[in-house]
């Protein structure tokens, strides 16, 4: 080993030596330098090689060569007084091939300026010998296809004031601790390394490079904290460290002598506020903080940056009112979109910014009729105001904005007719007016006259469309994306016949019926990627093979139609395939297993039959989402995930699957959601699923699971992230040990106001800018009624153990699950008292303990449950006074019936006031040993203050089995209205 190392070292020093030797070897004569130039040209110039305008320089080389050869007159060559070549600019000169260390280039040792940018040196490495050109002041190798390590030797070019290696994404710089390539280049004025893979922190020593004027380090995989003193470099004019998501930092206080003109930290981890002292950078022209993590208000001092031409604060977490920016008269681009900003009512200043080319104010809570203020901005080419509450009509003067190429007013409350409004926007490429309240009849032709149009979205207005059939090829724009969802279409618009380059076609929620005609995709076969046709009345295809030949199709969504027969086989490229809620029959075609790119397969709610084909095991390893719910599949489910599976959601519910739960599920290490509900699985509780690190939802309802649940909360079973578990309607039995739930950490916390929900993202749709979100749904039974939750909020936490044969006491570890919203233990044989510590579960909205054998009183602590809207303790052996006040005033008889000893409102049995409660938790005190001091104090108060009596032997005569279930559930459902919908999709009932 040692000798190998030795050898290795020797080789390195030998190379070193050779480089040094070669560099100092010989000083060339003028003629020799000239022929070195020619040699370089001969080796690397390739006329056919792409680089527009390139060979002009070499033209002059050729011409002169036939005369005498005065290389110093060549285009791109500069000589010193003494006749040495000191400058060589061969940028964009169709140079190609590999530069190696024997290149004649390195003979030009007097070079001070070398520019080889915009050529293609075919994955050449930068030869270490570049270090021989010691006189270099300026080196530009940008955009020339260099790859590999930047040689350490380059650190010797200490005279460099300009270094540009940007645009060579294969290039890497390995930092060797203290020895950094840039370390001794203290004269640097311009440092451009964008898209070079630096994969390191920004070196601190740059803080001392007092000559630096330009720093461009975009997309360099920079990490850690950016040394903010760099912003204070005395000569700094230009800094761009954008597109480094792992680079953190903040803006410093700025001094008033800064020369900065250009400042971009977009798409980084930069955070904090914009300091008021920003006004000191009064030369600033370009300022972008886009897509970072800034917060706080936009300081009014921004107004002083009167030189600003570009301002983007988009996609941060800024809050508050936007100050008037009326003084930024030079602005050509203003982007404030997607923050938590408010435009307020003083938006009038916008119309002062008459130089604006681009205005983006999406999602700014604009509740105003703002469009009349925009019409003066006649230079606008981009106008995006999506996701606000802008109302009113589009004023006719809006037609002044003839330069517009992008107009996005989607998701607002605009109204009125739009018939011929858009005709004047001849340059429009992108038009989105979807999600408004426009009305009236529109001739689709009025859009089709916009020849440049590529993206058109009219989704979801109350428009009716008139389509005509007399289109010919040459009058139509070539659309790439067309959104006509929820547009009351009765048939496929016929102009689609002439669309050759469609990429995305969105026709969901219309009333199109019958078969899909072949011409829909005939012309866009090579381009169509997204095809959405949900919620129509489609019954099938004219010809399946047309569908199959869409060679780029990635998303196919034909859910909620009336498709018959077996599912259409998608092309190999398919990623997202949803044909749920149709009338599909037959078995799963094995061809589906061959879809190598498939990530989502949703066949739910059809009438498909048979066993899962054995080839399905291939799919389990590529899919993220597999939904087979509500079909008639049967047989065992075997061979699911293997190591490396990406599966996140698996729903096999409401079929006739049987057998044991396949142990292969333990390899689904990304699984978040598993539902096996309503099948005939027969097994003990799959406690081993607890090792799945991501599992959040586990639904085993209505199967034949049996036996005692053992091993919960051991090291092997953790369920750390579990939030929803429903194992109701099985034959589980035995006691649940007190510690059963102690590792269910996700249930112990709650996050107010988090309205995010579970889903998977599919990132293949460029135009939507955000990834395509597939939201998980689930069916959860509550009191015998199935409800479909179209979203599963990340704060929803529920346990349902009902309808089993559990016995023993309610496990104490429940008291720590502070996030619980719904707890159902009904229809078991639980005994002992109701834990008073359930009063700690402040989020609880529904508590069902009915039909057990619980005894003792209803603990007063349950009065602390401020959100409790459903309580059911009926049919137990409870006694004593029903707690009074707060939520308890809202429960009726049905909550308490079937308990012999309960008294007080709402029951008609009065309590005997004189008797003091004797039935305190009668069980072993140890269980309550972990009560918090405050709980103990509560007990004391209750002891003193409550004179509830124990009524023994009172018989409640009326065992009315009221159908309370439904009505209670409705109340429960109502609060969650938004996320609950009836079982079947009933869009048009
Ligand atoms: C920079 O210069 C110092 C002093 O001459 C030298 O010791 C060091 O090795 C040099 N660093 C690099 C990376 O060349
Ligand atoms: C950022 O950091 C994460 C975690 O260390 C890493 O996986 C990711 O590749 C980094 N991204 C970039 C662009 O450097």
From TrEMBL:
Protein keywords: Cell membrane, Glycoprotein, Leucine-rich repeat, Membrane, Repeat, Signal, Transmembrane, Transmembrane helix
Biological process, per Gene Ontology: defense response; response to other organism
Keyword Signal: yes
Localization per Swiss-Prot or TrEMBL: Cell membrane
Coiled coil ranges: none
Superkingdom of this protein's organism: Eukaryota
TM annotation in the entry: 939-962
Signal sequence region: 1-17
A Pfam family: LRR_1
GO cellular component terms listed in the entry, alphabetical order: plasma membrane
Similarity-based family: Belongs to the RLP family.
Descriptive protein name: Leucine-rich repeat-containing N-terminal plant-type domain-containing protein
Organism (species): Tagetes erecta (African marigold)
């Amino acid at each position: 080993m040692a000798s190998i190392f030795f050898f290795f070292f020797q080789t390195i020093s030998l190379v070193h030596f050779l480089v040094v030797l070669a560099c100092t070897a010989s000083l060339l004569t003028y003629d020799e330098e000239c022929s070195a130039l020619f040699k370089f040209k001969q080796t690397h110039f390739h006329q056919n090689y792409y680089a527009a305008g390139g060979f002009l320089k070499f033209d002059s080389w050729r011409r002169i060569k036939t005369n005498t050869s005065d290389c110093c007159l060549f285009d791109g060559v500069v000589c010193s007084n003494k006749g040495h070549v000191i400058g060589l600019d061969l940028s964009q000169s169709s140079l190609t091939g590999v530069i190696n260390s024997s290149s004649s280039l390195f003979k030009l040792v007097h070079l001070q300026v070398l520019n080889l940018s915009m050529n293609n040196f075919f994955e050449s490495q930068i030869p270490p010998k570049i270090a021989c050109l010691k006189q270099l002041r300026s080196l530009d190798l940008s955009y020339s296809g260099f790859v590999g390590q930047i040689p350490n030797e380059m650190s010797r070019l200490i005279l460099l004031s300009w270094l540009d290696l940007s645009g060579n994404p294969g290039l890497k710089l390995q930092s060797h601790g203290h020895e950094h390539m840039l370390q001794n280049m203290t004269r640097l004025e311009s440092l451009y390394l964008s898209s070079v893979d630096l994969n390191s922190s920004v070196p601190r020593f740059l803080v001392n490079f007092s000559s630096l004027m330009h720093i461009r380090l975009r997309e360099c995989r920079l990490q850690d904290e950016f040394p903010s003193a760099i912003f204070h470099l005395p000569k700094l004019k230009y800094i761009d460290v954008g597109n480094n998501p792992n680079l953190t930092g903040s803006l410093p206080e700025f001094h008033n002598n800064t020369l900065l003109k250009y400042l971009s930290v977009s798409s980084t981890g930069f955070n904090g506020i914009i300091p008021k002292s920003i006004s000191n950078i009064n030369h600033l022209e370009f300022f972008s903080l886009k897509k970072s993590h800034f917060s706080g208000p936009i300081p009014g001092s921004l107004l002083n940056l009167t030189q600003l031409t570009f301002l983007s604060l988009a996609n941060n977490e800024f809050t508050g009112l936007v100050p008037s920016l009326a003084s930024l008269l030079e602005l050509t681009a203003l982007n404030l979109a997607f923050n938590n900003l408010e435009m307020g009512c003083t938006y009038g200043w916008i119309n002062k910014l008459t130089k604006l080319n681009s205005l983006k104010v999406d999602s700014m809570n604009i509740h105003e009729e703002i469009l009349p203020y925009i019409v003066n901005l006649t230079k606008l080419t981009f106008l995006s105001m999506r996701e606000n509450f802008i109302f009113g009509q589009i004023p006719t003067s809006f037609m002044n904005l003839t330069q517009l190429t992008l107009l996005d007013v989607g998701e607002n409350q605009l109204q009125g007719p739009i018939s011929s409004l858009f005709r004047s926007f001849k340059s429009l490429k992108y038009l989105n007016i979807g999600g408004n309240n426009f009305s009236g009849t529109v001739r689709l032709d009025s859009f089709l006259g916009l020849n440049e149009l590529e993206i058109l979205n009219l989704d979801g207005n109350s428009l009716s469309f008139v389509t005509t059939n007399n289109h010919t090829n040459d009058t139509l724009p070539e659309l790439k994306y067309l959104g006509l969802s929820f547009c009351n279409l009765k048939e496929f618009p016929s102009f689609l016949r002439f669309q050759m380059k469609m990429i995305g076609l969105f026709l969901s929620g219309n009333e199109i019926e019958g078969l899909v005609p072949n011409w829909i995709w005939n012309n866009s076969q090579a381009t169509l990627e997204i095809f959405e046709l949900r919620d129509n009345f489609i019954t099938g295809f004219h010809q399946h093979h047309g569908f199959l030949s869409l060679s780029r199709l990635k998303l196919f969504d034909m859910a909620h139609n009336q498709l018959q027969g077996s599912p259409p086989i998608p092309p190999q490229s398919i990623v997202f395939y949803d044909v749920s809620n149709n009338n599909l029959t037959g078995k799963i075609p094995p061809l589906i297993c061959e879809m190598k790119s498939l990530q989502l397969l949703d066949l739910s709610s059809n009438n498909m039959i048979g066993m899962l084909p054995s080839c399905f095991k291939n799919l389990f390893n590529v899919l993220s989402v597999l939904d087979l719910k509500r079909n008639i599949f049967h047989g065992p489910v075997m061979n699911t995930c293997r190591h490396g599976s990406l599966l996140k959601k698996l729903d096999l519910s409401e079929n006739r699957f049987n057998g044991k739960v396949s142990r292969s599920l333990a390899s689904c290490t990304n699984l978040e959601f598993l539902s096996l509900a309503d099948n005939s699985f027969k097994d003990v509780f799959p406690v081993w699923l607890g090792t799945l690190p991501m599992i959040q939802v586990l639904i085993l309802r209505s199967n034949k699971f049996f036996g005692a649940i053992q091993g919960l909360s051991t090291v092997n079973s953790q369920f750390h992230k579990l939030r929803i578990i429903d194992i109701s309607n099985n034959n589980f039995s035995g006691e649940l040990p007190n510690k059963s739930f102690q590792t269910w950490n996700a249930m112990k916390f709650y996050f107010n106001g988090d309205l995010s929900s579970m889903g998977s993202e599919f990132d293949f749709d460029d135009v939507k800018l955000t990834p395509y979100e597939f939201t998980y749904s689930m069916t959860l039974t509550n009191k015998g009624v199935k409800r479909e939750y179209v979203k599963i909020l990340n704060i929803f936490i529920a346990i349902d153990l009902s309808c089993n044969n559990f016995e023993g006491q309610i496990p104490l570890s429940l008291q720590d699950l502070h996030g619980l919203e719904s707890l159902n233990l009904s229809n078991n044989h639980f005994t002992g008292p109701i834990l008073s510590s359930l009063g700690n579960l402040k989020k609880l909205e529904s508590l069902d303990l009915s039909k057990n054998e619980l005894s003792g009183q209803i603990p007063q602590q349950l009065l602390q449950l401020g959100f409790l809207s459903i309580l059911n303790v009926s049919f137990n052996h409870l006694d004593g006074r029903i707690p009074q006040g707060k939520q308890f005033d809202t429960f009726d008889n049905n909550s308490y019936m079937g308990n012999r000893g309960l008294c007080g409102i709402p029951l008609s049995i009065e309590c005997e006031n004189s008797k003091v409660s004797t039935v305190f938790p009668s069980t072993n005190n140890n269980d309550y040993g972990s009560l918090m001091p405050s709980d103990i104090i509560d007990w004391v108060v209750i002891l003193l203050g409550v004179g509830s009596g124990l009524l023994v032997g009172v018989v409640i005569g009326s065992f009315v089995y009221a159908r309370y279930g439904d009505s209670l559930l409705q109340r429960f459902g109502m609060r969650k209205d938004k996320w609950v919908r009836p079982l079947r999709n009933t869009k048009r009932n």
